[in-house]
Write a structure and sequence with these properties.
Blueprint lengths: L1 H8 L8 H11 L3 E3 L6 E3 L1 H20 L3 E2 L5 E3 H4 L3 H7 L4 E6 L2 E9 L4 H11 L8 E10 L13 E11 L2 H21 L6 E4 L11 E8 L5 E11 L1 H6 L2 E3 L5 E3 L1 E8 L1 H10 L16 E5 L7 H14 L4 E3 L6 H10 L4 E5 L1 H6 L1 E6 L5 E6 L3 H26 L1 E4 L2 H9 L3 E6 L3 H11 L2 E5 L17 E6 L3
Bound molecules: zinc ion.
The site of zinc ion has 7 residues, from loops.
């Protein structure tokens, strides 16, 4: 087992040095590598396979909801950015601008999209003419660029992958309803696909998207008690419709502006699931997104019949729709155990001559580290299906318990500071003014993550005035 210990010790301690633990895990499990340009990352095949699984789950749900995919250009005329005043102010510090191309200076600089409200607004302005054209609901899967000086793989990089959905409706009510519906869709994906509990709610003015009337977010609690914003939806009112002339002739013959909304999740979700479920041994991947759900490790693989039995089992599981693989490399079983545990594969089947003879298989669960040799080979498909389901439920329950145990109340700034210092989310009253929000930030380095649906607090945590909103405050990534 000496090799075991060595392997584990290659990852920094999760309790005392969580940032290094995270870096070690994403690099050593080959999810990502650093790109040659500061702020960029390479998503390696194992990491990209996770993204593809997340993407497929979300894309299916969008299509069921009636949203269509489209693709808009990467380059956006600089003049578009300045059409919505708040939008340009919010994004100006982080946009990358193309000034030269084809060996010459461009007449108008082009922005590398940081998000596509402007260019999609422009196209909507062309495509929408009558109430019959509405609603128009589109989504695109693409990359965006928001300049960063540091690199935190999946959490903070200049370029990242995401989806951005954009809809235009004839009425404010419909656009607002879609903003909330998409938030619920994200919450379901977090629960059913990532096994990750989240808090959802409206963002404060300070934290909202540049140019939006209202922003809603979902926040997940990471292992260290910090919050990770994992998805946002925005109701734009007529801000972008007016800036880009998105007008339609209504049933009454009058020319009216549409109401727009947008929503997005990104490769940040991979960071979220790593920091929600991981442990000292490395990743723990939720079964719905794990590139390999079951790794089969042959025991005494040189013995006659062992590899054949492993391959036959792999084929059966694959046929049943389970992502299975056999590790028939030259490494020792112990080495393979460590490797696949670090890579977070939900289940491992150990299959050797004794198992084959007795018609059984040994199954190891990555999340609980439990091992049992009581499973019958002939009903492997049913057993593995059942276990994968069970793991989903238990991963979610475990994370949910942790989150609920770590939401504390505060009546004063001192209590709030103590709460976030202890790795908690803090529920507290707020009077609604920007100064008090800034005071919390300054005093406790915590920000308002989302507002609770109802105000259940009496006083503002910062100034003592009557509370207008109950807010979840936390330190955030
Ligand atoms: Zn106040």
């Amino acid at each position: 087992m000496a090799k075991n210990d060595k392997f584990v010790s290659q990852i920094a301690d999760i309790e005392t040095d969580f940032p290094q633990w995270y870096t070690d895990v994403v690099i050593k499990t080959k999810l990502v590598d650093y790109g040659p340009v500061k702020g960029t990352m390479v998503i390696r095949p194992y990491g990209y396979a996770i993204w593809e699984n997340i993407q497929r789950e979300i894309d299916t749900r969008f299509k069921q909801a009636g949203v269509e995919n489209a693709y808009f250009p990467l380059l956006i005329p600089m003049s578009f950015m300045t059409k919505e005043a708040e939008h340009v102010e919010g994004f100006a510090p982080e946009v990358a601008v193309v000034t030269h191309a084809g060996g010459a200076k461009l007449e108008e600089p082009l922005v590398v999209r940081p998000t596509s409200e402007t260019i999609i607004g422009h196209m909507m302005g062309k495509w929408v003419e009558s109430w019959r054209d509405l609603p128009l609901r589109m989504n695109q899967w693409c990359n965006v660029m928001r300049w960063e000086k540091t690199t935190r793989p999946f959490l903070r990089t200049s370029e990242f992958l995401w989806q951005e959905g954009h809809s235009v409706y004839a009425s404010a009510e419909e656009a607002e309803a879609e903003t909330l519906a998409m938030l619920r869709l994200y919450e379901e994906v977090a629960r059913d696909v990532l096994c990750m509990p989240v808090l959802t709610g409206r963002k404060t003015e300070k934290e909202k998207f540049a140019g939006a009337v209202a922003t809603y977010g979902m926040e997940a609690m990471m292992h260290d008690g910090k919050s990770l914003q994992s998805g946002t939806t925005h109701y734009m009112g007529q801000n972008f419709a007016k800036a880009f002339g998105v007008q339609f002739t209504d049933k009454d013959g009058a020319l009216k502006y549409g109401y727009t909304m947008s929503y997005g999740v990104s490769t940040r979700l991979i960071g979220a699931l790593i920091m929600t479920h991981g442990d000292q041994r490395g990743l723990i991947l939720p079964p719905p997104v794990a590139p390999v759900q079951v790794i089969i490790v042959p025991i005494a693989q040189k013995k006659e019949g062992v590899l054949e039995a492993c391959s036959a089992l792999e084929a059966r599981l694959k046929k049943a729709g389970i992502r299975a693989a056999v590790d028939d490399s030259d490494n020792s079983p112990g080495w393979k155990f460590n490797e696949w545990e670090m890579k977070g594969v939900p289940l491992r089947i150990e299959l050797g001559p004794r198992d084959i003879e007795s018609g059984k298989m040994t199954v190891f669960r990555r999340d609980t580290l439990e091992k049992s040799d009581e499973y019958l080979l002939f009903e492997a498909e049913t057993a593995i299906f059942g276990l994968l389901q069970k793991i989903c439920g238990e991963l979610y329950a475990r994370a949910e318990t942790r989150m609920h145990d770590r939401i504390v109340e505060a009546n004063t700034l001192e209590e709030l500071l103590r709460g976030v210092d202890g790795g908690n989310f803090v529920r507290a009253g707020w009077c609604g003014c920007r100064e008090c929000e800034d005071k919390v930030k300054e005093f406790a380095q915590a920000t308002a993550r989302v507002m609770a649906k109802e105000n259940t607090s009496e006083r503002c945590v910062a100034c003592g005035a009557p509370s207008v909103h109950t807010v979840f405050f936390a330190r955030a990534y």
